[in-house]
Every structure is written in structure tokens, then in C-alpha cells.
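Justification of resources, computational component.

The compute hours requested in this renewal are based largely on the per-chain cost of generating structure records like the one below. Each record pairs the submitted sequence with a full C-alpha cell output. That output is archived, and it is also reused by downstream analysis tasks.
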Amino acid sequence: MAYFNAALDLYKDDMRVWSICGDIPELNGFGRDRAHFMPVGSSWGWATWSNRWVSYTGNNPLGAAPRRSRVFKDRFNVHGLRKFERMLGMEEAGRISSWYVHWHLTITRNGGMSLFPPVPMLRNSGFGGGTHSSRFSLPSLFGLGDKQLGRLDFAFPDHVELDFEFTQKVIDSPEWRLLRFNALMGKIKRLTKEVFARKS
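The structure output for this chain reads:
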């Protein structure tokens, strides 16, 4: 895809950029003229370089001190985007399976950021069923896999720097509110299963 290839070529020598992401929620035209850098990656359609991916191990155990640090939690949770710190704990305990949370931790530990388009550059067709979703999940029911694809008619940033306003818009978007609620429903479902498993 032209968007990914152009961005990979443009930022290949800047080690602050760790991935190029293709999905973004509907923001009613906000920041439509250019792509934006945010302090998080994405598991829904992305690209990276081999000299970044080599740092990914799929197993990034944290010591007790970082876990207790409010600074770490705020940064790792992307200031309210999602409770990645809780997800990491569940993954390490074997309660969920997520390669992505370790990739996000890799980016965080290296002070990295990712490029996001102002409009969706891909569709996620994986909501119909699979390891992490079903046709009855909230993302599926609300049609998050049916986004209108955008065009590569926007600019790439000349300067590699976090776009705080754009990141806040994403955090506050209806789509990410839905995804956070969906994660909460998943937590309740897992806890219910564990309770019934202990009783049986």
C-alpha cells in the first residue's frame, strides 16, 4: 500500500518512529490534512522495520518498581487510552493471549511513537470471529470493520514529534470509548467463568 511504503521510506532512519499504523477512529475531519504521531502502536494493520522489530521478544517482564510507578502506568496506558498495564498483567498470568501488549511495551520502553493517518487506510475484517472477537462482540455489532476507506491525499509530518491534541481526540473518540467498554465486558466475562470454574 502506498501509504505504508511512503512512510516506511520517509522515517526509516529516525529511531523515534517504531511503527506505521493504518487504522484510526472517525474524528469528524479533525487533523485531516496530515498524518500524526502518537505514543502507541496498533494491532490493526501496521508496519515496522527489522531494526525495530528485533527488539520485540514477546516477553518483557517488569520489575516491581515500574509496576508501582504512576509515571509508568500513565505513559503505558497512554493517558487513558486503554488500561494496557492491566492487560499486561493478565497476559503474563496466562489469562489472555496478547502479542500486542508486549509490542506496545517495547515501544514504550524505547520512548517510541507511531505514525497514524487522519483517516482509515484499511479495514479490519477480523471482527466476525476468532481468538479475540466474535460476531456478537461490541466492535462487530457497532460495525468497526465497515469503515469508509480514506485516500492518500494528506501530508506526512516534516518533524517527528508527538501530537498531543490529536492523541486526546483519539482517547475521547466514541470508538475508543466503545473499545474500553468492550474490554471491561471481557474482564467481567473472564471473572464470571473463573468463579463458576472454582465452584464446579
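Residues 129-134, 138-142 have pLDDT under 50 and may be disordered. The chain has nine helices and four strands.
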